[in-house]
Description:
Elements: H1 4-14, E1 18-24, H2 30-39, E2 52-60, E3 63-71, H3 78-87, E4 90-96, H4 100-119, E5 125-126, E6 132-133, E7 137-142, H5 154-163, E8 168-171, H6 180-205, H7 214-235
The protein binds guanosine-5'-triphosphate.
Guanosine-5'-triphosphate binds at residues 24, 26-32, 44-46, 48, 73, 142-143, 145-146, 173-175.
Amino acid sequence: xxxxxxxxxxxxxxxxxxxxxxxxxxxxxxxxxxxxxxxxxxxxxxxxxxxxxxxxxxxxxxxxxxxxxxxxxxxxxxxxxxxxxxxxxxxxxxxxxxxxxxxxxxxxxxxxxxxxxxxxxxxxxxxxxxxxxxxxxxxxxxxxxxxxxxxxxxxxxxxxxxxxxxxxxxxxxxxxxxxxxxxxxxxxxxxxxxxxxxxxxxxxxxxxxxxxxxxxxxxxxxxxxxxxxxxxxxxx
Length: 236
Ligand SMILES: Nc1nc2c(ncn2[C@@H]2O[C@H](COP(=O)(O)OP(=O)(O)OP(=O)(O)O)[C@@H](O)[C@H]2O)c(=O)[nH]1
């Protein structure tokens, strides 16, 4: 008989990781935020050019959740940003409360998330409370320990979050708060799970499949490739 440990390993290997991309202007604290979540430690300095995906498991509501976290680097290159947006299931947009341009950058990033996610047909769904959500995006104002350098108020952050359609807003200090970052990830995970459940139940009510079944999806992909190959042969 299989041991519980082995069964857990098998079920984990079948579980899809929850992919979260951390986006924001340079210097807002994306790496500090990511490392706080992964290790609970605060590390001050990082290589600004390094872009990395970290993988970890965390306990959420009695379950083991698999996370993949993409700590993005310089956001100048458009194609790279598009690739990162397409990769993720959910997003955390970070700005620094001491930096106006990092605050404005979040609007641009949210706009791009909306347009790229739409192209991927990550369509919006209605939540039971009547609100609409697309790909979940949280807005986070960081560095609020720097009280004398603050430029963006908490109210402005909240206002921006509503304006650009983020699901939640937080103001934190990655440096000062150990648990804040973990809570943000946990809430994002819960929201995505809830969205998935709602989507499935709505689909059931409409007697539609919640997602395209894997085998149908494969068949469609094969068809596209076959057609492409055919077209290539014809041209050749
Ligand atoms: N005072 C304070 N400093 C912070 C906080 N979070 C990050 N920092 C500092 O801000 C600087 C930038 O942090 P990073 O985590 O490297 O920022 P980043 O967004 O990853 O920057 P790039 O890698 O250049 O994109 C570092 O010196 C951090 O120590 C915070 O909550 N409070």
